[in-house]
Amino acid sequence: MDYQGKFVVALILLSFVFIGSVHAQVEEIPGAAQEDMEEAVPAEPPAAPPAKKSADVYISAPQEVDNAVMLYQELKANGYVILEGIYFDKGKADLEMESDTCLNVIAQMLTDHPKMKLYIVSHTDNTGHMINKMNLSQERAAALMTSLTDRFNIDMDRLFASGVGPLCPLATNETEKGRAQNERIQLVLQ
């Protein structure tokens, strides 16, 4: 097996190790700043989030500090989170301005926990050529890492960007809904 083949096999194996069972979803509890989220009880039912582009963790602007706490707790509990709120131009690695809220939450969490190190793992659906999808996912993970290091002064040594393309789908790629779920960014504890 040549070097490139070994690299793809290693990426597949790493993906399964890092991602594990990713079907768990996180519920947002508005106003929850308690240290133990298991004891948190919302005062009223949470408002429905805006239409999701992809992913499982919703981070809203009015509760950025609370969401940084929730993001940290979810990472500590599961070892990973699937982010919602990171948006790219279709087929490109250019972060959209809509991503700023989520970036602020991630940066706040990393600032609050200066020893935390993360893998930034980007996934795609399987439409198009495999090499293009692998490259796109790597470029997207790198773009998110660059944004955190350049804009928020997060030390580069604390982050590692990895693109795994379509190798670890959450859902079928046969439907638009499934493909949307498969296009995602995950944070994984190092």
Protein described:
By secondary structure, the protein is of the alpha+beta class. The protein has a single domain, classed as OmpA-like domain (60s Ribosomal Protein L30, Chain: A, 2-Layer Sandwich). It has 5 helices and 4 strands. A 4-stranded mixed β-sheet has the order 1-4-2-3. Helix 3 (100-112) crosses helix 4 (130-152). The protein is globular.
How are the secondary structure elements laid out?
Layout: H1 3-19, H2 64-78, E1 80-83, H3 100-112, E2 118-123, H4 130-152, E3 159-165, H5 176-182, E4 184-189
Parallel strand pairs: 2-3
Antiparallel strand pairs: 1-4, 2-4
Helix pairs in contact: 2-3, 3-4
Give, in order, the helices and strands. HHEHEHEHE
| Largest sheet composition | 4 strands, mixed
Give the overall shape, derived from the CA principal axes: globular
- Average per-residue pLDDT, rounded, comes to 77
Q: What CATH first level would be assigned?
A: Alpha Beta
The helix/strand class is alpha+beta
**Rg, nearest Å:** 16 Å
Poorly predicted sequence stretches spanning 5 or more consecutive residues: 3-63
Count of alpha/pi helices = 5
Task: List its salient traits.
190 residues, alpha+beta, 60s Ribosomal Protein L30, Chain: A, 5 helices, 4 strands, 39% helix, disordered N terminus
